[in-house]
Amino acid sequence: MGGRGRSRTQRKHFRQSRENVWKRSKPDPSSQNPDATDDAAETPNPTWTPFATQNSAFDEYYKEQGIVTSEEWDAFVGVLRTPLPASFRINACSQFSADLRSQLENDFVQTLQAEVVEGDDAEAIKPLPWYPDNLAWHSNFSRMQLRKNQTLERFHEFLKLENEIGNITRQEAVSMVPPLFLNVQPNHFVLDMCAAPGSKTFQLLEIIHQSTKAGSLPDGMVIANDLDVQRCNLLIHQTKRMCTANLIVTNHEAQQFPGCRLNRNHETLETDQHISQLLFDSVLCDVPCSGDGTLRKAPDLWRKWNTGMGNGLYSLQVLIAMRGLSLLKVGGRMVYSTCSMNPIENEAVVAEILRRCGGSVELVDVSGEHHQLIRRPGLRRWKVRDKGSWLASYRDVPKFRKNAVLPSMFPSGQSYQDLVDCNHKADTGDDIDKGADGNSESSTQAVENSAMQEFTEEVSDLPLERCMRIVPHDQNTGAFFIAVLQKVSPIPAISIQEKPKIEIDKQCVEPKIEDSNVLQVNSLESTKEVLEEVNLTDHKPRAEDLEVGPSVACTEQDSEEAQEPLKTESITKTTGKRKLQFQGKWRGVDPVFFFKDETIINSIREFYGIDEKLPFNGHLVTRNNDTSHVKRIYYVSKSVKGVLELNFSVGQQLKITSIGLKMFERQSSREGSSAPCAFRISSEGLPLILPYITKQILCASPVDFKHLLQYKAVKFGDFVDAEFGEKAANLMPGYCVVVLGKGKRTASESLVVDESTIAIGCWKGKASLTVMVTAMDCRELLERLLVRLDIDKGPVHEDDKPSSDKVPVHEENKPSSDDAGDEVQGTNGIDDSEATESKQ
Ligand SMILES: C[S@@+](CC[C@H](N)C(=O)[O-])C[C@H]1O[C@@H](n2cnc3c(N)ncnc32)[C@H](O)[C@@H]1O
Predict the structure, then answer these.
(1) Is residue 474 predicted with pLDDT exceeding 90?
(2) If you average pLDDT over every residue of the chain, what do you get?
(3) For residue 356, what are the CA distances in angstroms to 110, 318, 323, 740?
(4) Which of the residues 59, 291, 491, 681 has the least number of beta carbons within 10 Å of its own beta carbon?
């Protein structure tokens, strides 16, 4: 499973208004820097001037924080000012992962080396040493070079195509690190709290699926959540390439992610309920951040950077991380990560959550894991900068800034009063260990001294050196911060003394960084205090998110009612065919229904001869309760089914934007007029269902399979293997599956499906077979087959040689797609455009 998504690109929906990173259309005199000329060679436009890759506030800030030594400073900023080299990852679940790796190792490594600038001894491309199995690669070409340099075209085309298909993912090297430290297992329930655009979700799914056999599904699952709907769509598009039935995409504020806890009454009622609340084995908390670790990719940030960006996000980051920990099972791991270098968004957040969890959460020492990854220890001392002043302790915070600068942002995590109290305790001898000499007076004095010391330069007493900071000049990457946390016991009931008032200095914070590291200022406006584990009250949805029907103000009562899914059906008068419109609980999101229409299910099972071993009961869902209008039927794994059942029992607390694997699609009227079954198998669903299909399936010789991919439609009489042509002619009209045969007498071969089996969906028309695979997928599959089977040079087996009356199909005599064209709406007419089925 996975990595064989045959989806059509719908990029236009997702193109962000992101500025092109290393060029600027209109010169901005205020930000021009005559010294920053190092990227000028990249552009063909002589009037182009590079970004000002300098910001004195940035320099002052990070020099003072000491994230690198003063001797290293020049090397550090020097690398930050150069474009980021491209990196990518082979999808471990792809059928072609070994082929792709071998192509990189044996072909591109050599051919691309010629393109490396003379005198530069760096490798053109190389595997990232810390990533398992040579699956992640670093290239010394920037994205711009790949786009502009014609001799790199073949490699660039390779990256684009394989990325689109889902065989590789282009991803920043450092962004691949957090999932590696999560220790995810195939049976894990994983929560990815801030998941869009989804590169780490994809990695997590790969791990879940890593040892899955053909036709089976892992026990684990991933819930990928993001606050931003548009970005959720991008995430759905990304993860569709994975072809997984083990994913739910949700759209919540992560700090209020619902716990879906069943109350006791429910529990007694639903005796067969397997899951009684949402708790996860692993949580990825890749929070929104200021993103200055991405400066090499987004140099525009040089101009925008200011200290308010990090300070303003601190409270939200703490809230999200706390929510993640409360949803984590005891014994589970949570990785907290940012692409920011700022200690306020990093060590200060980690320190605060450790304090709040009071020993129930440990910061894990991962220095022995993935040791080839060069990382620096986390800081134990830092300062806060606010409104142009350096603050060494909370004592230094002016009164009017006390709402914006919090005690917990400082290394001691204490307010002045806390320290005074602490000294007082020391004075009275409470809670203070006697000194080794038993001299309490000297101990008290020592504490006082240390408290006073902290006023001048605070040092955290937590083991923050266990955090990891990746800096760009260590291994030619972006920057990243990672902390691995383990929950060792339930989080105690603590009263949060510090009520973090989320106050953003809007003058300081730039609200738009249109990148994967988006700063979401608006999300903060509705942020509330996180619910502690002990009072994990059921999540109350935001009123504005609830579907209450047109022009009805949402009252508290409405939202209560909305918690009862059955009562939320409302009849809406529409002008179209559909009079009855079932509204879901969440505004703008189609509701999820278990699909139980026996007539349709039986007709599908019967038509394709689907073995009963593939369970349908409770595994099929739709986004439309009107079965006569259902367009798509999705398949969900057992784990996802369990979560869905729980979600129904708790009043649909989860706002689900996407769920499961698209398995069946209704034939359009043109396609389906002559087909006995109204549904075809979707290309995403084919790998899962393939081992269970016993009808409408044929095995083609490599030559005939190649011809299908090349010509898209082949007349029955034109197949090289006449027996295959005959069998194809005898199929029922409509959708069918053609498997690439391995043996000699392919058409009569008994079908054995395993992970390496390659199959495509076709349409059986009156006179021909027509492939139902996108042009791009055909191209990619052909390329892979040519490499793997060496079939370009002619028939693979002697017996397959065409006889004089079985002339192979050439371009000039390629079969007309007359009959197929009548029925198939564009041979590749697979419409993947909708993330959810709002138009069903
Ligand atoms: C650093 S990016 C995540 C990158 C992602 N993990 C990946 O690897 O592709 C942060 C994400 O957090 C989302 N976000 C911002 N505020 C949020 C909130 N309160 N709850 C959930 N997501 C939020 C943003 O929309 C953004 O997509």
Answers:
(1) yes
(2) 77
(3) 53, 10, 12, 58
(4) 59
Annotated binding-site residue numbers for S-adenosyl-L-methionine = 194-200, 226, 286
Same domain, 230 and 258: yes
Q: For residue 46, report the phi and psi dihedrals to the nearest 5 degrees.
A: -70, -20
Cβ 684 under 6 angstroms from ligand 1? no
**767 pLDDT above the threshold of 60:** yes
Q: Rounded to an integer, what distance in angstroms lies between the CA atom of residue 724 and that of residue 703?
A: 12
For residues 77 and 210, membership in a common domain is answered with no
- Does residue 89 have its Cβ closer than 6 Å to ligand 1? no
- Structural contact between residues 491 and 326, judged by C-beta atoms closer than 8 angstroms: yes
Compare 602 and 16 and report the one with higher pLDDT.
Answer: 602
Q: Which domain holds residue 368?
A: 177-380+460-535
Q: Residue 336 has which token pair?
A: 């907290």
Rounded to an integer, what distance in angstroms lies between the CA atom of residue 162 and that of residue 43? Answer: 27
Which of 759, 660, 768 is closest to 717 using CA atoms?
Answer: 768
Task: With beta carbons less than 8 A apart as the criterion, state whether 352 and 358 touch.
Answer: no
Tell me what pLDDT residue 492 has.
86
**Best-predicted range by mean pLDDT among 32-36, 81-85, 347-351, 439-443?**
347-351
pLDDT score, position 112: 86
CA neighbor of 275 nearest in space, from 630, 16, 677, 646: 646
Average pLDDT over residues 797-822: 36
Give the model's pLDDT for residue 789: 67
Assess contact for 323 and 402: CB atoms under 8 A: no
> pLDDT of 182-238, one tens digit each?
999 999 999 999 999 999 999 999 999 988 888 899 999 999 999 999 999 999 999
Q: What is the pLDDT of residue 668?
A: 79
Strands 734-740 and 168-170: unpaired
Give me the catalytic one of 243, 339, 357, 554.
Answer: 339
More confident residue, 361 or 813: 361
- Give the alpha-carbon dihedral of 544, 832, 99, 689, to 10 degrees: 100
Q: Is the dihedral of CA 498, 501, 506, 509 positive or negative?
A: positive
- Cβ–Cβ under 8 Å, residues 235 and 192: no
Query: Is residue 817 in some structural domain?
Result: yes
Please identify, among 512, 535, 558, the residue that sits at the C-terminal boundary of a domain: 535
> Are 420 and 484 in the same domain?
no
* 444 and 484 assigned to the same domain: no
Over residues 110-122, mean pLDDT? 71
Catalytic residue at 289? no
Q: Where are the alpha helices (DSSP H) in 259-362?
A: 264-269, 300-304, 307-326, 347-357
Report pLDDT digits (tens) over 588-629. Answer: 889 999 999 999 999 999 999 999 999 999 999 999 888 888
Q: Which of 172, 180, 227 to mutate to test the pocket of ligand 1 (most atoms within 8 A of CB)?
A: 227
- For the chain, what is the domain count? 4
pLDDT band at 564 (very low <50, low <70, confident <90, very high): very low
Contact yes or no for 729/691 (Cβ under 8 A): no
Answer yes or no: is 780 within a domain.
yes
Answer yes or no: do 85 and 182 share one domain.
no
227 within ligand 1 shell (Cβ under 6 A): yes
Question: Could you tell me the distance, in angstroms and rounded to a whole number, from the CA of residue 345 to the centre of ligand 1?
Answer: 14
| Chain length of the chain | 840
Which domain-ending residue is among 484, 511, 535?
535
State which ligand 1 atom lies nearest to the alpha carbon of 289: 1
Could you tell me the distance, in angstroms and rounded to a whole number, from the CA of residue 547 to the centre of ligand 1? 24
Across residues 63-85, what is the average pLDDT? 96
- Do 719 and 778 lie in one domain? The reply is yes
**Is the C-alpha dihedral spanning 200, 470, 127, 301 positive or negative?**
positive
Question: If pLDDT is split at 50, 70 and 90, which confidence band does 353 have?
Answer: very high
Q: Are residues 341 and 313 in the same domain?
A: yes
Q: Is the pLDDT of residue 87 over 60?
A: yes
What is the position in ligand 1's atom list of the atom closest to the CA of 228? 25
